[in-house]
Amino acid sequence: MFKRLLISAGVCCLLNLLFAFKPVYAVFYKLSAEQIKEAIEYGQKNKTIDMATFSKQWTVSLGKGKGSAAIFTPYHNVAYKAKKSAVERKEFTNKEVAEALEIGDALTFSVTVYGEEYDFAMYYSAKIYQKDAIIQPSFEFVPEIADASEFWPNSPANTARLVFKFPIKDIDLNAPVTLVIVPPGTDEIPFDFDLGKIK
Fold first, then answer.
1. pLDDT digits over 146-155, tens only?
2. Which terminal residue of the chain has fewer beta carbons within 10 Å of its beta carbon, N or C?
3. What is the pLDDT of residue 29?
């Protein structure tokens, strides 16, 4: 019990320090001590489940073999790091909580796509549609060589994990957005996120 009280007090102090010096951008970035505790408990409680199930509430899936996109929020990060520490049987320290809460100035998405050729994702790009705005990424990671998919050698034979970051200053974090993946020479792939409803 005493240890739990110390952890709760430590989390509260950590939050006060964190938000005294960091800009606050939106509702889901303002995690209370209770929300941090909840995220940690979610991660520890679900340490044995697979990542797709664990991250389901932050993920938009188009169906098996069609692609998915996950958004990284501070809550998601804290929960994931707590899960990782629990799996490794390590203490999840206040320093690690602070690092998980760091959002910088970007909204980050991890996107899984499928294709036939080993280099199919090489020229993929992304953008965000919000209201009348089109927002371009400030960072992108697109692998030159894809991995064999779970369907290989059948179609779709290859899969790639892409990462895109978008500047928060250009986004209303309490409103819906559509993340659009743009493959060259074919239709855009949309993923709809309601930012105001995401933890």
1. 999 999 999 9
2. N
3. 60
